[in-house]
Amino acid sequence: MRSNRLAPGRSADRLAIGQIALVGLFVTALVTAQLTAAKLLALPLPVELPRVGAEIVLPGAALAYALTFFASDCYAELYGRRAAQIMVNVAFALNFVVLGLVWSTLRAPALDPEFAGTFAAALAPSTNIVLGSLLAYIVSQNWDVFVFHWIRDYTAGQYLWLRNLASTASSQALDTVIFVTVAFVAAPVVLGTGQPESTAVVVSLILGQYLLKLLIAVVDTPVVYLVVRLLRPGGVDAHSGYVADD
User: Fold this and answer.
1) What is the mean pLDDT of each successive set of 10 residues along the chain, which is 246 residues long?
2) 191: which DSSP letter?
């Protein structure tokens, strides 16, 4: 009978390829989030929800940013807590590289001033959006890794669905509250860029964005299982010999 287990060399190759692919997905989604942050989306709902309304208003970055939690949960499951923390915090530093490159391009002399204005409007999110997204990122992503591995250690490596949903749901709540509070309440006043939004608008923004992010977390759980099954020798249920991360 043919064994379903991969040879040791093939298993290592598959894990190495998966590691590069997940880091690439994480960084790609993060950079895309930075570049799409300036556009606000209005997604219509099939029914009007209390405190939310008939549409969800959220930054364009939210859709790409949701992918970072999927990538980090897969990465944390396969490569451990320490590796996931390194990925998250190195990527945070690289955010400033992206911002620096965009800023230097915007400041450079333009051949076509009219196009330069359009280019700047598309790629230059306001300072309050940048501050909100950076603060939300560093807090929520580190929380995601912490909760994911706390549940993993507590359950001895079982219930991948539970740690994926719980870590993503709680970290997305932190991300949404921090981002909306900084971008639409605190920073506009501190930076002199405008007046803070009303409490009703802020609550609507938080609830609407969080509902969409929570839906994405539920939908991506089967995909997390698929990725882990493909990359981990023995599949998702390979919990024998489980050792908690340091």
Assistant:
1) 53 88 94 80 84 80 88 94 95 89 87 85 74 90 95 92 94 91 72 66 83 88 93 62 44
2) T
One-letter amino acid of 129:
I
- Token reading at 95: 């955010």
Structure tokens at 42: 């209005």
H or E, element range at 50? none
Q: Is 128 exposed, middle or buried (0-12, 13-18, 19+ CB in 10 A)?
A: buried
pTM across the whole model: 0.82
Assess contact for 185 and 204: CB atoms under 8 A.
no
User: Contact 217/69 with Cβ under 8 angstroms?
Assistant: yes
CB 205 within 8 A of CB 58: yes
